[in-house]
Each structure stands twice: as structure tokens, then as C-alpha cells.
Task: inverse folding
């Protein structure tokens, strides 16, 4: 099973969505993709990946991870404590619904891009970009 089901062009679209979303916020967005989810619960796996990628080390604890196990058709969207306490109660579920609607038709790229855009809007609202912001986490997609 291939670890990366995305073409180079699709990967660039996702990375560009991350860059656009992060332009107006101090928040950080990452995407992690693997074929199978080694944990029965994709949220638990996303928490493991979040820690492994060092996403908890952002200054304002405002990292968001989009996790996708494409062969298992499992995914999760999680945020660090800084953003989790500020977004509306239904934010994570409604963001997953956006992804789910695109994933159901096999359009993972569009689903990720729309979800990233939505996360960026929330991050912008609660963590606006400041002139001294640095990009604390890489924008590239990580794979297992």
C-alpha cells in the first residue's frame, strides 16, 4: 500500500492551502497521511502524531492537525489546548463533516483544502497574525 496517494500537484494544493490559512494567523496547521491507522481510534492516533511532530510546542498552543489514514478510510482533526478552548463547541465536528463530504466521493485533496481553509478562518479570529510571528512548524505534509 502506498504511503502517499497524492500526486505532486495535489500535495502542492494542500501545502498552498496551509500557507494561505497561516498567512493571517499565528496558528500552525499540519497534515499527516498514512495508509493504515495503527490505533483503532483515529483520534488517539492523531494525538500520537501531534506529539511526535512536536505540535504541542507552539508558543500559543494553537496547532491544528489533519490526520488521514487513506486505506482505512479513517481521519481526525485535532487542535492543541490553546485553540480548543476558544473555538465554538461544534467546530471540530463541523470541520470533520466538511472533510467527510469530500472524502465520501474520493476527493481527499479538496476535502483537506476546505478543512484547512475553515481551520485558518478560526485561527485568524482567535490568533491573529502579529508582525513578530514566525512559522513555528513546517508547512509540508508528513507521511508514514
Result:
Amino acid at each position: 500500500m502506498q504511503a502517499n496517494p497524492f500526486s505532486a500537484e495535489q500535495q502542492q494544493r494542500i501545502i498552498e492551502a496551509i500557507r494561505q490559512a497561516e498567512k493571517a494567523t499565528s496558528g500552525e496547521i499540519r497534515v499527516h497521511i498514512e495508509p493504515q491507522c495503527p490505533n483503532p481510534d483515529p483520534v488517539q492516533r492523531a494525538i500520537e502524531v501531534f506529539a511526535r511532530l512536536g505540535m504541542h510546542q507552539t508558543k500559543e498552543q494553537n496547532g491544528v492537525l489533519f490526520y488521514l489514514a487513506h486505506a482505512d478510510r479513517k481521519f481526525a482533526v485535532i487542535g492543541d489546548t490553546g485553540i480548543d478552548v476558544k473555538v465554538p463547541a461544534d467546530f471540530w465536528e463541523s470541520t470533520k463533516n466538511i472533510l467527510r463530504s469530500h472524502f465520501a466521493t474520493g476527493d481527499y485533496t479538496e476535502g483537506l483544502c476546505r478543512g484547512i481553509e475553515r481551520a485558518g478562518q478560526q485561527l485568524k479570529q482567535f490568533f491573529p497574525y502579529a508582525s513578530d510571528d514566525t512559522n513555528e512548524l513546517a508547512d509540508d505534509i508528513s507521511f508514514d
